[in-house]
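Lab notebook, bench 4. The sequencing result for the construct came back, and we need a structural model before the next group meeting so we can plan mutations. Quick request posted to the team channel:

Model the 3D structure of this chain.
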Amino acid sequence: MGKTCGGGYGDAHCIPGCSPPGQQCQDVRHSWSCSWPPSHLADCMRAQLQTSDGARPIAQAVRHNEIVIDTRSIEAHLPRVVSGFFFVQDASKARLARSNFIAAYGLEPGQVPLVKMDFSAAGGEADPAFTLVA
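Done. Here's the predicted structure in token form:
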């Protein structure tokens, strides 16, 4: 939501993109213009699935969300912290990123899944929200 910290990463009181403790979504009891801490990821995802844009049913609503990640923790533990790659509509960028990642770390393609996400299909086995592509 445009929240930045001087100097980049910030600290416990200023996390780029995030509300400080006491002002996070679970504290203010709503799920917009606030942030969820990592310990409330399940609450965040539930709120996302329950969001409607007012013009369409929840399953068809246009939703937007962001996840802020401190990349220092990822870089220090590559490649094992990456479980796979996903895409929503066009797989081309995800395929390229996955291919480059596999080459950079000498991995086998089967170690790094490529998954299609379709939350409008979240209904059952015939039309799952997550489909393994590669």
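The longest strand covers residues 114-117.
Will bring this to the meeting.
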